[in-house]
Amino acid sequence: MPYRVLYRLIWITSLVCIMAMCAYFSTQSLPVPKADQLAPFSTADGSLSLSRPSNWAPNEASKNGVETGVEFAPQPGTRIVFRSLLQDSLMADIARSGGSGVAGIPGTTATTDKNPLAAVHDLQYNRMVSQKKDYADLTQAETTKIQIAGLEGLQTSFKCKRLVGLSLSEMSGRRISALSNGRCLSIVAICPAGSEAEMEPVFDKMLASLVVKEPGG
Q: 3-class SS at 188?
C-alpha cells in the first residue's frame, strides 16, 4: 500500500513537471533563420516576383487564375504573405460604379462611398477580423499612403494576438493593399512583438524587391 501511494506521488509530480516545462517552452520564441542572403523567387504564373532570404521556403498556392499567393514563414508566428486577387479587383470596380452590387461579395457591406483602393483595403481588414484564430484582438494604427511595386498603395500597422505553441502571444504587423492590372495586391507581414527590429528590415527588403505582372507575363 505505501508503495502504491509513493508511485502515485512520483507520477503526479512528474506530470506536473512535464506540464510546467511544456507551458514554459511554448512561450519561448524559436530563433528565426538568419536572413543575410537574398535569392530570387517567382510564382508559377509569373505574377509575383521578389527577393527573399534563401533559407525561407516559399509556400505557394493558386486557385484557377482567380488567386495567386505565396507565404514565407521562417518560424511559428513570423510570416509574410503576398496575394494577387481577382475578386478584390472586382470589388474595386464596383466601388468605382458607386457601390451597386457590393453586397454580393463576402466580407463587404451593402454600399460603399470609398475610393476603390480604400474599399479593397477595408475588405482585407474585414477578412482578418473574421480570422480570429490568427488575428485575435486586432487593433489598428493610422493608414498611410505608400508606393509598392511601382503602385499606389495603402499600409496599416496593427497589433493582435495569435496562438503560438500553447500560449497566446502578442504580435505586431502591417497590411498593404494596392491595385494593378485588373487585380488586387494584398500583403500581410507579421512577427512576435519585440522582434520588430530584427524582422522589419527583412520585410522591407522583400517589399522593395516586389514586381507585379499579369499572370503568365
A: strand
User: Residue for cell digits 509513493?
Assistant: 6
Question: Could you say which DSSP state residue 103 is in?
Answer: G
CB atoms under 10 Å from CB of 142, counted, come to 7
- State pLDDT tens for residues 35-83: 668 999 999 999 999 999 999 999 999 887 789 999 999 988 899 999 9
* Pairing of β 58-63 and β 183-192: unpaired
pLDDT in tens, 17-27: 555 455 444 44
Q: Name beta bridge partners: 157.
A: 174
